[in-house]
Amino acid sequence: MADKRKTKSEASSSSSTIDNAKSESVVVDVGRRRSSCGYCKSGSHTSITHGLWAHSLTVHDYQALLDRGWRRSGCFLYKPEMEKTCCPSYTIRLKASDFVPSKEQARVSKRMQRFLDGSLNIKNSDEQKGTSSASSIQKELSPASSVQKDIIVDNPNRLPSNNNDQMIDYLSDLINSVVLTCIELGEFPSEIQFPKASVKSVAPNKKKLQVEEAHHLVYTSNISFQLAASLRRVHKSVGTEKDAKFVAEMLASHLDSSASNISLSIKACNGHINFYSTATPTQADATVGKPIVSKGGSSNNPEKFQVKRQNLEIRLKRSTFDPEEYELYRKYQIRVHNDTPDHVTESSYKRFLVDSPLIFVQSNGDGSAPSCGFGSFHQQYLVNGRLVAVGVVDILPKCLSSKYLFWDPDLAFLSLGKYSALQEINWVKESQSQCPTLQYYYLGYYIHSCNKMRYKAAYRPSELLCPLRYEWVSFDIAKRLLDRKPYVVLSDFATLQNEMALLPPIEDQIEHEDYESNDIHVDGDEEMSEGAFEDSDDDDDESIGSETTTLIPSEKRKDVSNIVIGLRGMHLKYKDIQQAFGPNEMNYLESQLNKYVTAVGADLSERMIYSIG
Predict the structure, then answer these.
(1) Could you give phi then psi for residue 434, rounded to 5 degrees?
(2) In this structure, are residues 482 and 123 in contact, taking their beta carbons and an 8 Å threshold?
(3) d(C-alpha 350, C-alpha 354), whole Å
(4) What is the pLDDT of residues 36-90, one digit of tens each?
(5) 291 and 265 in contact (C-beta within 8 Å)?
(6) Phi, psi for 534 (deg, rounded to 5)
(7) Gyration radius of the chain's alpha carbons
(8) DSSP letters spanning 118-183
(9) Comparing C-alpha atoms, which of 427, 349, 350, 335 is closest to residue 381?
(10) Does one domain contain both 398 and 518?
């Protein structure tokens, strides 16, 4: 027991720790709820979950809930009933120290670095669409003392050997920016998660005679075929190759007006987007397949230029209401998720992303918690002092749990969703030296039946939580099982694999489907609230009415005697007060307690306070 004979200053400094030791989780069981599904858009109440309302919640109890498939939205906790819901949602995590970034994730980091050091140049297209572009936002973020000019690429013979890679990255970013423009103009539907563009250089021996101006062809991209495939998944009436040609022609027309700062001509050819050199290549250039690209100045005296450098600051703060964050959230929800302004209110924002039942635990420097402590936080990303993104996270004894991310739509070309995920993974790695138990990064729910949620598996090596035994199973194993059916007891993988060994293999789509990860935590469908659910007392084992006694089959009965009941300000074990209820009341309460134990587990059911009034 703590020594009560302390100085006033000692008592003050340790009061938070003492309060934490005495704190308790107090929840109200909302029970089974049905709602419409934001993932499959079924149109009926096919999403089935169990809900809890948390008045308070210790970080240890919430960690345990996460490891049983629960998530939170504000103070509301929910868990899919995996066997019955339309889109089974599997908790996904990765061990931060084992994380291996993919090529695309590495490109995101490099793109951000080029943006910060000033070498990323995205053509301003304000004149065409009348909205903020990458160039205009870059000017707003830039220090006043900086002067920007277009990046000049002169004769490739005098450039570093990596110039070809820089041009490929530049053209890829340019296409991605044009795709965003098409979305903003309504030419592409905003609800589709489009793949990222990939541009490749064309070696002389790979040039085909049937390609127009093949001898000048230096770069090509097949992104139009991938975009057409994404459109077909939503609009079944869309055709095949003809549509890829149409998409390529649309993108090429936008690229023509967005790429005036490079000496490359852009044409659509058989569904491909081709980039041609407009100058006569030298024999050396023809051999390596490099373009001659220039702008201004003579070839012997290239124009000098200054680079705008940006300053990125990342701050971690306790979850509180911040007007600047709210304005960024409004902008994000309206422009990215197409919410109406009257839907994005201050109160809804607070309920969703500010309110938290987690009881803050202050670090005492003994390695039991990171320096920031445990609890709910907002991780702010600021460029030159301006807020551009906010990651809403919970920091718990074993993990950083990523809840949501919102970002400035004007900086979509930076893929801030992917970038923030990489930063959060890195934060976990660095924090292990302070708190060894903090090892994992939780990405929320993985829904294999929903294409736009599959991007989470790109953070490797990840694990999925078995919905029955709550064991962690490698994603590589789980994916093969989930390719066959949406609900699987993953811990039975050994038996299931033997059964599936005779089935033909399914191509691994994760490597080919490069979905934008602007939430892990970005999907608005993960926003839940108590009011979003409708009562559904339709359990097969229930028959509840004012004069009806609920019968619980013996095989489904749990030991509920040690559950602590919160009643009229008192906390008493159920076994000590059950005689205070009449037969019908007692049977009904025991029925609810049985479901509660099934949902949260025996240990947690005896640790948390089950409030009934």
Answers:
(1) -90, -35
(2) no
(3) 5
(4) 888 888 778 899 999 999 999 999 999 999 999 999 999 999 999 999 999 999 9
(5) no
(6) -120, 140
(7) 28
(8) T-------HHHHSS--HHHHHHHHS-TT----------GGGS-TTHHHHHHHHHHHHHHHHHHHHH
(9) 427
(10) yes
Both 92 and 135 in one domain: the answer is: no
User: Do residues 242 and 359 share a domain?
Assistant: no
Contact by Cβ (8 Å): 234, 40: no
Residue 527 structure tokens = 């926003």
Predicted TM-score (pTM) of this structure: 0.68
For 601-611, the pLDDT digits (tens) are 999 999 999 99
Within-domain flag for 441: yes
Q: The tokens of 234 are what?
A: 């939503």
Number of C-alpha atoms within 13 angstroms, CB side, residue 582? 6
The domain total for the chain is 3
Do 480 and 404 fall within a single domain?
A: yes
Q: Are residues 253 and 379 in the same domain?
A: no
Task: Please state the separation of Cα 164 from the chain's center in Å.
Answer: 32
Alpha helices in 345-394 (DSSP H): 346-349
> Is 177 part of any domain?
yes
Q: How far apart are CA 333 and CA 516, in angstroms?
A: 16
Considering the domain boundaries, does residue 114 fall inside one?
no
Helices 241-258, 223-234: inter-axial angle, 10-degree rounding: 120
Count Cβ atoms within 10 A of the Cβ of residue 251 and give its class: 0-12 exposed, 13-18 middle, 19 or more buried: buried
Q: Which domain holds residue 139?
A: 119-288
| 538 lies in some domain | no
124-157, pLDDT tens digit by residue? 433 333 345 555 555 566 554 333 323 223 333 3
